[in-house]
């Protein structure tokens, strides 16, 4: 029997936690059912193939069928099954298998049954959302084969992998039909800062942070910014030249992560132009109405599940608060809709061919980097908790925001707040400047701290601390030190893990 050939990647880095989890489950003397999911280009395939490279892998991969393709749902399924039959014919060294025509997955699984039930293999289904044509039938037809035969083979590892996080969560992780059958689920996230630093070895910290803020911790994206030249120059070359990588990548993200819904992209584009928006504001934009409705709620849930948007609630409110708002969370989509989308036709016409950096408005870039750094800090709240010395304590964290209540209390927003149970409130101001922070930030923090205390008197007996997070440091230490108990710069951000 042939197998899928994997080339060992001697430069494979990171993913230590995920590999440890796979070690734990694969050491058991029983069949393994593993689900791996995460957004496009995050490294799912590399993790699976590198981890299982010494095993006999039978890989079956879903093929993207363009939305404009006129094939019926049954024809699309038949096409996916036939692609798998061609692979199986190679693995089993039986060319007759490739000539078969099946309309149901049950027929394919039956053909695969003897191998899956008895052989020492890794049965690996990649881009499962395309194999399933975004329908639950694939999993319903897989279930009896796992239950009746495959799970009794202690030498079998079944891996389902896909880029559509919301689809996989609904149809595998949370679905009752497969409840209790999946032994391990891995939601693969973008690289953490320490992994990105190792991956981009040799680059300076400012360069690494620029990459994080513009394209996130996506390995494939970071790899394109590790070549000779500055990160920002390479990013512009990959964005503002005809047929550039990031110019084309956006469409592929939506195709691989979400089934067709005209509102997905429109909502992200809307949020990319704003710091945040409420569900009512999004609904008004999408439908011209103020009522959000169940269908829009489902779309927002899908986008959040995929990591494209973030649901924000003030740190002092519960999940049902009417203050809930949304902001874009995916850095590469923010970059695309901020700088590529508005000038797409000019890019394709070659207007920036000689000097791609000319496509960028520096002031707009500084604004985007500032908002992106705020979001990055909130995503990495655990890192700052460790730097500040209370990561082992019970705390809640998030932004603080409150609407104005007239003359009694003006509105207020604080970038990041930690409430350590029973003891301390830490208010964090986040500033991302290409230079030292001035004194105006001190006045802002004093005003915000006073408003926070006034709005939330229940914390009057807590100790209050103020922290300034800024990469480059401050101009006047004397003035800043009088207001802030701590200033966190790149030295601690990169060394404080």
Protein model, in words:
- With 497 residues, this protein is of the alpha/beta class.
- Helix content is 45%, strand content 14%.
- The protein contains 22 helices and 13 strands.
- It has helices at 16-26, 44-51, 73-91, 105-118, 128-131, 137-148, 165-173, 193-199, 205-215, 219-223, 231-237, 245-257, 262-272, 279-287, 293-305, 331-340, 344-348, 362-379, 381-388, 440-455, 477-483, 490-495; strands at residues 32-37, 57-61, 121-126, 156-162, 184-187, 277-278, 309-312, 325-328, 395-402, 412-420, 424-430, 463-469, 486-488.
- Strands 2-3-4-1-5 form a 5-stranded parallel β-sheet, sandwiched between helices.
- Helix 7 crosses helix 15 (293-305) and helix 9 crosses helix 18.
- The relative contact order is 0.08.
Tags for this model:
alpha/beta, globular, five-stranded mixed β-sheet, 497 residues
Low-confidence stretches: none
Strand order of the largest sheet: 2-3-4-1-5
Mean pLDDT: 91
Shape: globular
Radius of gyration: 25 Å
Share of residues in strands: 5-15%
Oligomer: single chain
Largest sheet: 5 strands, parallel
Q: Could you give the distance between the termini? A: 46 Å
Q: Give the % helix.
A: 40-55%
What structural class results from the helix and strand content? alpha/beta
Summed up, the helix count is: 22
Task: Let me know the number of strands.
Answer: 13
Give the topology, please.
Blueprint: H1 16-26, E1 32-37, H2 44-51, E2 57-61, H3 73-91, H4 105-118, E3 121-126, H5 128-131, H6 137-148, E4 156-162, H7 165-173, E5 184-187, H8 193-199, H9 205-215, H10 219-223, H11 231-237, H12 245-257, H13 262-272, E6 277-278, H14 279-287, H15 293-305, E7 309-312, E8 325-328, H16 331-340, H17 344-348, H18 362-379, H19 381-388, E9 395-402, E10 412-420, E11 424-430, H20 440-455, E12 463-469, H21 477-483, E13 486-488, H22 490-495
Parallel strand pairs: 1-4, 1-5, 2-3, 3-4, 11-12, 12-13
Antiparallel strand pairs: 6-8, 7-8, 9-10, 10-11
Helix pairs in contact: 4-6, 7-15, 9-16, 9-18
């Amino acid at each position: 029997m042939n197998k899928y050939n994997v080339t060992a990647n001697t430069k494979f880095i990171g993913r230590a936690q995920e590999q440890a989890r796979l070690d734990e489950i694969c050491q058991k003397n029983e069949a393994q059912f593993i689900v791996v999911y995460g957004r496009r280009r995050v490294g799912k395939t590399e993790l699976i193939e590198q981890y299982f490279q010494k095993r006999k892998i039978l890989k079956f991969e879903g093929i993207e069928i363009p939305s404009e393709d006129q094939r019926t749902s049954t024809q699309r399924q038949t096409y996916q099954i036939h692609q798998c039959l061609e692979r199986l014919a190679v693995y089993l060294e039986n060319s007759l298998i490739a000539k078969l025509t099946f309309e149901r997955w049950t027929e394919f699984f039956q053909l695969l049954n003897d191998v899956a039930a008895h052989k020492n293999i890794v049965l690996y289904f990649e881009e499962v959302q395309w194999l399933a044509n975004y329908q639950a039938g694939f999993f319903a037809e897989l279930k009896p084969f796992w239950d009746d035969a495959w799970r009794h083979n202690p030498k079998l590892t079944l891996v389902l992998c896909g880029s559509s996080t919301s689809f996989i969560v609904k149809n595998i992780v949370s679905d009752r039909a497969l409840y209790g059958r999946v032994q391990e689920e891995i939601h693969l996230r973008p690289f953490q800062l320490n992994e990105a630093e190792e991956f981009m070895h040799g680059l300076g910290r400012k360069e690494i942070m620029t990459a994080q803020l513009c394209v996130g911790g996506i390995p494939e994206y970071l790899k394109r910014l590790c070549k000779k030249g500055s990160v920002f120059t390479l990013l512009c070359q990959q964005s503002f030249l005809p047929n550039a990588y990031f110019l084309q990548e956006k469409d592929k993200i939506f195709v691989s992560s979400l089934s067709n819904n005209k509102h997905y992209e429109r909502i992200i584009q809307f949020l990319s132009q704003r710091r945040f928006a409420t569900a009512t504001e999004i609904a008004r934009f999408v439908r011209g109405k103020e009522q959000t409705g169940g269908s829009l709620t489902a779309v927002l849930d899908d986008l959040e599940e995929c990591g494209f948007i973030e649901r924000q609630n003030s740190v002092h409110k519960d999940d049902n608060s009417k203050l809930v708002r949304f902001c874009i969370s995916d850095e590469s989509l923010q970059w695309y809709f901020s700088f590529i989308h508005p000038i797409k036709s000019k890019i394709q016409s070659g207007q920036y061919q000689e000097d791609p950096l000319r496509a960028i408005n520096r002031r707009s870039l500084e604004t985007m980097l500032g908002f992106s750094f705020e979001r990055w800090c909130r995503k990495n709240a655990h890192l700052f908790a460790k730097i500040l010395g209370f990561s082992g304590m019970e705390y809640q964290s998030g932004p603080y925001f409150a609407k104005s209540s007239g003359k009694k209390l003006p509105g207020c927003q604080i970038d990041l707040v930690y409430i350590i149970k029973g003891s301390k409130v830490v208010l964090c101001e986040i500033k991302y400047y290409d230079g030292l922070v001035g004194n105006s930030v001190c006045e802002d923090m004093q005003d915000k701290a006073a408003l926070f205390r006034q709005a939330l008197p229940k914390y009057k007996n807590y100790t209050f601390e103020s922290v300034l997070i800024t990469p480059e440091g401050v101009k006047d230490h004397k003035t800043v030190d009088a207001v802030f108990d701590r200033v966190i710069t790149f030295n601690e951000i990169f060394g404080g893990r």
